[in-house]
Amino acid sequence: MQVSRLGFGGAEIGYEQAPDRDVDTIVAAAIDAGVNVFDTAECYVDSEEKLGRALQSRRDQVFVFTKCGHASDLQGEDWSPDMLSRSINRSLRNLRTDCVDLLQLHSCSEEVLRQGAVIEVLERAREAGKTRFIGYSGDAGDALFAVQSRRFDTLQTSVNIADQESIDLTLPRAKESGMGVIAKRAIANAAWKTGRKPENPYNHEYWDRLTKLQYPFLNGADGVSVALRFTLAVPGVDMAIVGTKSPERWASNSRLLDAGPLPAGTFDEIRRRWQEAAEPGWVGQV
After folding, report:
1. Residue 21: which of 189, 229, 198, 245 has the closest Cα?
2. Residue 46: CA atoms inside 13 Å, Cβ hemisphere, count?
3. For residues 48 and 60, is the Cβ–Cβ distance under 8 A?
4. Residue 26 lies in a domain
5. Per-residue confidence of the chain (286 residues) as pLDDT tens digits?
6. For the whole model, what pTM was predicted?
7. Residue 35 belongs to domain with CATH number
8. Is residue 196 part of a domain?
9. Which range of residues forms the domain containing residue 165?
């Protein structure tokens, strides 16, 4: 797959209940800006259904990625092979396609991965033509085991200015194995943007880390651009996922890379600051 450097993340349109008309506008704007990857998951509420409808007439122009593993209103336990098979079929229906381009296990633990059954379900789905490639989405030691298993085509993992464990732990090994690498949380949830601790607890960990890291560029107008360009400058990263539920936001997202590649000196300074300030508990965030 020849993927765009930025991909559209479908979490916000599901969790934050974006209206269908807004999703249509966002999807069209993203494609017009050169985006050809749309990444979602079965647990993002109705994100798959929204994207399936919005992309139906443009399916041959884009790559569709989804994730699986959680029952999400299906009968059965999370990670049950039978439930997983039914979930994959439901995702195809939701996305209005016979085959997704990438099917990923979603934050599956090393314990479950070691048993092998869930990986076999994805392998059978690939053999049956329900997906072109299979991947693992997750972080820390779980992601390391997935990479070392050499059974996945791709790794989706957290990489950003506040989350750099993967740069040393998994990314070099993923590239050695020939895996494609997708960066999630690529702008650290923009946790610093309001200048105060976010209301959403989901962003608190990154706020706390950034408060200690004290990157000077976060005080400038180009803070988000620098953050995203850092993620894309990390060796081994092939693309970064960025999400929004606001129709007007994608145009600004597409301009974040207009400044060009991040200067090597800026990249090195961000890495140096992380190495000086990072605490042992600052592991990859799921």
Report:
1. 245
2. 10
3. no
4. yes
5. 999 999 999 999 999 999 999 999 999 999 999 999 999 999 999 999 999 999 999 999 999 999 999 999 999 999 999 999 999 999 999 999 999 999 999 999 999 999 999 999 999 999 999 999 999 999 999 999 999 999 999 999 999 999 999 999 999 999 999 999 999 999 999 999 999 999 989 999 999 999 999 999 998 889 999 999 999 999 999 999 999 888 888 888 888 888 899 999 999 999 999 999 999 999 999 8
6. 0.96
7. 3.20.20.100
8. no
9. 6-186+237-253
Give the number of domains in the chain. 1
Q: What is the distance between the alpha carbons of residues 38 and 87, in angstroms, rounded to a whole number? A: 19
263: three-class secondary structure by DSSP:
coil
Under DSSP, the state recorded for 69 is -
User: Please, what's the b/e burial string for 256-286 (b: 16 or more CB within 10 A of its CB; e: otherwise)?
Assistant: bbeeeebeeebbeebbebbeeebeeebbbbe
Tell me how far apart the terminal alpha carbons of the chain are, to the nearest angstrom: 25
Element (H, E) at 61: none
Element (H, E) at 202: none
Tokens of 53: 């409808």
Element (H, E) at 62: none
The size of the chain, in residues, is: 286
What span, in angstroms and rounded, lies between the C-alpha atoms of 235 and 165? 13
